[in-house]
Amino acid sequence: MKPSALSTHVLDTAAGIPAEGMAIELWRMEPEPRRLVRTITNADGRTDAPLLPPETFAPGRYELRFEAGPYFAARGADPGYLGTVVLNVGLREGQGHYHVPLLLSPWSYSTYRGS
Q1: How many domains does the chain have?
Q2: 25-50 mean pLDDT
Q3: Which domain holds residue 101?
């Protein structure tokens, strides 16, 4: 079985740059919601360490919470209507590396399972 892990990165598609300085939280949603990680993206729009490395990975439902509104406000941009972007994901054992990129502007966002 492949070891599983979770990572992310954020791209500011309005400016065409990595989203440096964005706060991200990872929550485990079961059996009760519990925050596991709070981190800030680096100059590459990535976290310095995986959100869930293989040694702490557990299957289940998780939420990634990206603080998009404060990120745009700190850059002097109108945050539009985005505040916190919440992605609810289900992670299974043996599926390898889960990478969840976020592409966003003040008006929209998209995501996918990356590699």
Answers
A1: 1
A2: 97
A3: 2-105
State if pTM tops 0.90: yes
Reference 24, options 80, 101, 93, 97; nearest CA is: 101
- Residue 115 inside a domain? The answer is no
The CATH number linked to 100 is 2.60.40.180
Annotated binding site for substrate: 9, 46, 112
CA atoms of 32 and 42, how far apart (whole Å): 30
Give the full edge-to-edge strand order of the sheet including 17-18: 17-18, 2-12, 95-104, 109-111
Q: How far apart are CA 109 and CA 21, in angstroms?
A: 17
Binding residues: 9, 46, 112
Does 18 fall in a domain?
yes
Whether 110 is in a domain gets the answer: no
1 versus 94: the higher-pLDDT residue is 94
Q: What is the model's pLDDT at position 114?
A: 87
